[in-house]
Amino acid sequence: MLHVVILISGRGSNMRSLVERARHYRVVAVVSNKAEAPGLVFARERGIETVVVPREHYASLTAQKEALLSAVKTFHPSLVALAGYMQIIAPNFIAAFSQRIVNIHPSLLPKYPGLDTHARAIAGGESEHGCTVHLVDEGVDTGIMLAQAPCACSSRDTVPELSDRVLEREHVLYPWVLNNIASGDITIGTGIVRYSESAQREAAAKGFRLNMSKDGEAL
Ligand code: GRF
Question: Domain 1-98 class?
Answer without folding.
Answer: alpha beta
